[in-house]
Amino acid sequence: MSAVPKDAPRLVRMQDGDLAEVMAIESAIYTHPWTRGNxxxxxxxxxxxxxxxxxxxxxxxxxxLVAASEGHLLxxxxxxxxxxxxxxxxxxxxxxRLARSGGARQVFLEVRPSNLAAKALxxxxxxxxxxxxxxxxxxxxxxxxxxxxTLAL
Length: 153
Prior knowledge:
Elements: E1 10-13, H1 19-29, H2 36-44, E2 48-54, E3 57-67, E4 70-78, H3 87-101, E5 106-111, H4 116-124, E6 128-139, E7 142-152
Parallel strand pairs: 4-5
Antiparallel strand pairs: 1-2, 2-3, 3-4, 5-7, 6-7
């Protein structure tokens, strides 16, 4: 009997051709998603833009900016049907690895206080709150604050 290895997800650099799929996930999981222009700008600025794929299926993605010994995780998202399967943790580990290899000593991110799953993920990794940005995010009926979190690498 021979063991047949299962396909494993892989990290693939995001390209312009991925943006339709990225936008489909972004629009499905957020009430106020990033725009195609936000992703295009990140690609043009040479941010660390990565997709997480199982075969041809897009499971998730992240956008990371590394500069001046700091990383800033701008977006980390997992397709709704693939959430709670460890993909967010894996993407976060990969983003932290890339931040470290790019010379970052710490990573910052913003998260909505209402995004309980994301907050729990970041807390499990040791992120801690360092600030609050009042009215940072658009929200139904107004604006929502952002928690600013950081993690020393």
